[in-house]
Amino acid sequence: MALRELLAAAVFLGLPFTAAGWQAPVYTVQGRVENSHGADVKAAAIRLTLASPAVILSELTDASGRFSFGAPQAGSYTLTVATTEGIREFPAPASSTEGLVLRMKRNPGMHRHDLGIAPATVSVNDLQAPIKAQTTLVKAEKALEKSDEGGAWKLLNQAIQEAPAWSRAYSDRASISLSRKNYAAARSDLDMALARNPRNTAALTMLGRLEFIIGDTATAQEHLEEALRLPPVYWSTYLDMALLDIRLHRYLAARTLAEKALQDAPPSPAAAYFLIGESYFYTHHYDQAKWNMEVYYALLPDSPANARGRASAMRNLNYLAKHHLVH
To answer: CB count, 10 Å around CB of 245?
Structure first.
């Protein structure tokens, strides 16, 4: 099971809760969300933050891109919107709180939607690889970015033939085996990668992920902690360790690591919001859990590749609503 499937398969285990102290809404903020081309955005995540009294409300827009919030009273507020184009904050308008039009700006680098290979640190082992092999590997990684695993697999085999001592080529090939659930092949390539470069953090991270998948959390933790000790640390290591922390009920630690993943460059996949949402849920911060699940849902394009992840997020949101855990 790949990291994407592990994240998508996670479900909430609820505890009784009621939103104490909530006042009946007397103040309405409503409007619609548009994409950068002016089209209405269905299922955009939108949050209203009211400074005084401290109130956070969130929801997904309807099929026409519309939203409507009922706040307990007027006050200074901001609106935050998440769509597949990224996340944007809108200040409170000076004149009106109804009929608002919130238009997004295209920001393709804001969040990745996949769980591909994080950038590798350039090592001495990398510098020793022949130029021909380096060119082949660049082509392979571009194929992986396009989800062309077959093409990438052939190119990585070629790169390994051209540079049999190159650690990175083995760890890249292991990522495909891991995605295909061929754990024996993945482990073999990861062992080869680490034998050639013990500081290959991508290989250490994937080895930790593999051990997590097969249920050896102690060994998974050893590998991931070693990867975290080798700077620079990329989002993939933060996310794998955060997932392990949630499995081990270390929810605050998981949230901290997932938030670090969001601050990385290049940025983390949307999966970080899923993990943050889970950590908030298990620590009984249900409004924050709801918002992060909505952001995760909104950032993922509606495609077959994301169907399971989006369904998992929606299942969690329905659970929160059904059990009246949020406003």
So the answer is: 22
